[in-house]
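Justification of computing resources. Each target in the renewal requires a structure prediction run like the one illustrated here; the chain below, 116 residues long, is used simply to show the kind of job we budget for.
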Amino acid sequence: MPHAPKKLHEVVLAAEQTRAGPRAAVQILTYLERNPEVADSIEGIVRWRLIQDQIQRTVQETQLALEWLVEREFVSEEKRVSSGVLYRLNHNKKEEIEEFLERAKREATVQDEENR
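Resulting structure tokens:
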């Protein structure tokens, strides 16, 4: 008897329960669901998955980081009609920026030592 197609949450649960790479399963299924006409080999899936995942994650992380920096006025944004938004270091916050970066380096060092 053929099995009924599983819903996304069922696939996620099954993958989590078997530890068969739930994050990868969700990424692949999400991509295929968004692009139902796509068919590819495992090598092709690995290529686009790595590229798309890295680009998507990088864009999202960068956007969030820029918003955070603009809110703190470490970076200013200029809205341009021709080129969109441009971001620039706020030189008026030089001391605060240096303090922030120094603190971040110290915290990263402590985190690295704790992970060893």
